[in-house]
Queue: 2 jobs
Job 1
Amino acid sequence: MNSVIYITGVSGSGKSTIGKLLSENLKIPFFDGDDFHPQSNIDKMKSGLPLNDKDRQGWLLKLNDVAKAQLQKSSCVIVCSALKQAYREILKKDIEYHVKWVHLTGGFNLIFKRLNEREHHFMSSDLLQSQFDTLEPPKDAIQVDVSLKPSEIVKNIVEQMEEKSEFGLFGLGVMGKSLSRNLAQKGFRISIFNREVKGKEEHVAIDFKNKHKELENAHAFSNIEKFVNSLQTPRKIMLMVNAGKITDMVIEDLLPYLSAGDVLIDGGNSNYIKTKERYDYLKSKGIHFFGVGVSGGEEGALKGPSIMPGGDKNTYNLVKPYLESIAAKDVNNLPCCTYIGEEGSGHFVKMVHNGIEYVEMQLLAEVFTILKTMGNNPDEIADILESWKPKAQSYLLSITIDILRKKDRNEWLIHKIVDKAGNKGTGNWTTIATAQLGVPGTLIASALFARYTSFYKDERIQASKHFEITSLPVNLEIKDVLNAYQFARIINHFQGIRLVSEAGKAYNWQLNLSEIARIWTNGCIIKSDLMAELIPVLKEDDNILKHQVIINQVKLLKPSINKVVAKCMLSELAIPCLSDAVNFLNNYANSRSSANIIQAQRDYFGAHTYQRTDDATGKFYHTNW
Ligand SMILES: NC(=O)C1=CN([C@@H]2O[C@H](COP(=O)(O)OP(=O)(O)OC[C@H]3O[C@@H](n4cnc5c(N)ncnc54)[C@H](OP(=O)(O)O)[C@@H]3O)[C@@H](O)[C@H]2O)C=CC1
Ligand SMILES: O=C(CO)[C@H](O)[C@H](O)COP(=O)(O)O
């Protein structure tokens, strides 16, 4: 990426000398800001009068134009005193991501002496005091002391520029560790940070760096200020910490050391509503905030996750090279990372990804129940699922096969795992979002509540004694179970994608559903052959149940799920998602449903009115029942 290096400092600090030498060293063009002053400014300074902000305005804009034009071709060095932050704002206008600041520092006496030794310069030493008075030293600049020899100053600048990392990773837990290794493997110079808890967790970052060859050029920190200062500006810092209060705490810990224009990327599973709040809050401080969904777990984060970034579109280019480089690749070798939309959209899409994930997991659990009740042991069930791969391949199917085959001291490990399924919130939020946006997300709600029910372990044991649920062997053909599973997966994807689509409309996010399906074809937990099939389908309509290919599949599979659900009910098997899938379609594909009864009841007790089938105008009626 081309950059403009602004060399700043008071008059007499040696900016022109250093700027020229630096440009020669870096083999990039040099521009002396003084050459762009209008004659009126030069005359004013020659007459011993300091320039005011109005005098400087046009000149700074001119330099900004010079920088912009040069950036189209190459990097460059521009020398300009830029004493106040307001001046630097003008200099970096529209190019903030390309700007690097070098500030030359020195004591008044040394610089005063140098100015008095100068010949043929229109700046008198008398003006120096006013320059020192005006100076607001930049916080985010490479600082170099001008008492050094010019060659040493240039060497120092180059070293500092080379030393600074281009990307920071905050939080070396499961995901942060994998992502930082992934970034380093792609050749990025990174800084990594993990907190220290005295006596409990010490030297986490440095120990982790020392353990992995690819991190030899990374800088490891346990001090936030040093971590932030180790980064090139504008800084790009990815947070991989727990969602919720910890994310807020970490943002507050970082804020004192950040500068306007820096970018914070929250890669955790944060609630999209909180992301919107954080986006607005940080915007007010000049910090760009990205809520980025990351999926793939520990292995995906290392080898290539699916990444869902949401935030300011103009700033996306700044983080795009990093996110797209570390992302998984699809079949066409395109990154499974795409700009999703504004503010909380990235986290919303990740949340729905997890909602779909909950259902896919629950369906496999229900399939396991059915196949077990049909008399199969875990190895046999794994073999059956293996045989489904040509028709139903997915990451979750594959890992379930591995799980079922895993032994612990000659016994199946799965039999030793307590039947209580935890959650960290995304399924809960997806269910809330379906209700808030009026989308019938019945499967996600069922999958979530199945997990909640699992947590009532003691009550379940009691209830099993009271109600004597039999779970009788169920007589089904394997092909019907596969078809039922595939049917329910289509309904799951319909509901999840529909939720994303409705959110896009409600929040005015310009979402590209086909592109979202594309980035879910690799790297993430819900990657599957079905997802790949949906890419062209979603190019035509956000309602996959309107597409002829899907309609044909659903019609073909429906008799099987009818049979599976009916027989499971008679055998008293718990299959909440399979049964909801078939119930949903029976309700959805019903042109005359029983909702007229509900509406009549509402009108009876609450005068809520109703529309009539024999009045096409849509007029509302009330009956005195
Ligand atoms: N695990 C997964 O499969 C996935 C997780 N995610 C999301 O990514 C985020 C990170 O997950 P994961 O890596 O699994 O979580 P971990 O619990 O493994 O790591 C959490 C990190 O946050 C740090 N941390 C916690 N509290 C503080 C604090 N007060 N100040 C500074 N740092 C703190 C921890 O430091 P310390 O080690 O010192 O406690 C640790 O580095 C979460 O939001 C999660 O939901 C997203 C996709 C997949
Ligand atoms: O985001 C993920 C996978 O995509 C995380 O693993 C997440 O923790 C899964 O959700 P839950 O913990 O609620 O099962």
Job 2
Amino acid sequence: MQTLKVDLGDRSYPIYIGSSLLDQDDLIHPFLNGSQIAIVSNETVAPLYLQTLKQSLSGLKITEVILPDGEQYKNLDVLNTIFDQLLKDVHGRKTTLIALGGGVIGDMCGFAAACYQRGVDYIQIPTTLLAQVDSSVGGKTGVNHALGKNMIGAFHQPKCVVADISVFKTLPDRELSAGLAEVIKYGLICDAPFFEWLEANIEKLVARDEKALAEAVLRSCQNKAEVVAEDEKEGGRRAILNLGHTFGHAIETHEGYGVWLHGEAVAAGTVMAADLSKKLGWIDEALVQRAIKLLVKAKLPVVPPQDMTPAQFMELMSVDKKVVDGKLRLVLLKGLGEAVVTGDVPQDLLHSQLEESCK
Ligand SMILES: NC(=O)c1ccc[n+]([C@@H]2O[C@H](COP(=O)([O-])OP(=O)(O)OC[C@H]3O[C@@H](n4cnc5c(N)ncnc54)[C@H](O)[C@@H]3O)[C@@H](O)[C@H]2O)c1
Ligand SMILES: O=C(O)C(=O)C[C@@H](O)[C@H](O)[C@H](O)COP(=O)(O)O
Ligand SMILES: [Zn+2]
């Protein structure tokens, strides 16, 4: 097992990465606040892993909150069902919530923990590649709104993250690929050697080679932990983690939550961001092609859905959380492993990018 630390002063926490960690009771116990626990999971993950997790928590009173499965349920109505269950079972301020699932469960459980009785502890047990490399780390929690992704939420850090790579054995291929989009993101934005390692190992990752997957989770979490430690609440640098997301979130919202997976939308959005960076003269065509080649090998889409128009992109992107005083800010690339957040993209260049991508 490998242990990393997210260094945030008195809100610091460990990330444990390894195989068969779910039933290791010594990992979770030290982070329980009291004897009350609520495990939040969904109808797909619970039948696979809830019993194993509960074995490591024997002797404790556990509330099970099983949500419907899917991005379309990441909303305030479903969030409220978590509160219903916690109140029904009389959970107090010393309860600990445990998120057992992918990013949807992690974001919702984390947000429930941020709100319930003005804030209780929670633990992340991510079960998708995407959740292990990204969503379980960093404390961004929240739900979607019909008009925009993750529009209602809070920063609330977990007490620990347990990333058990054994759970990938049941993960569908499409979900594994979606996770690879965020893995590739780290290489592009801040870790050129990792990008090169991914180019050399992408076939192994797609074939679910355990050693390669463990390395990808470790290096992704190292990168995310470093960025989050520097800028917990996205005052500045943390926004680089949004590469491809301004376009990607527009795709997800337009298509209907759950139709394009988050990682798929991020992949297509990443190519749009790379192309735009090239139009600005910041990177060359060769780097755009390397990014596309890697994403294609990861079995990810590299163009947006063909029913989207530039006008629809512009409208949906206008509510992006990085907009300041009505001005769109985008994460673009200045080189391999070097991202910048800019509000200075000329409108005509952005429009020609959207025209080209929507062809
Ligand atoms: N908070 C953050 O920093 C952050 C970062 C990235 C993404 N996100 C959010 O995360 C969400 C996407 O997360 P996701 O890709 O994990 O999607 P997800 O949570 O919908 O999980 C994907 C699918 O895999 C299933 N599943 C999960 N683990 C499984 C396993 N081990 N075996 C079999 N099936 C399994 C789920 O039930 C679901 O059907 C989006 O809502 C996105 O906005 C948040
Ligand atoms: O942790 C971050 O910061 C990220 O931006 C990670 C992203 O991969 C993730 O999708 C995040 O939820 C997007 O955040 P948002 O603030 O753009 O909604
Ligand atoms: Zn993301």
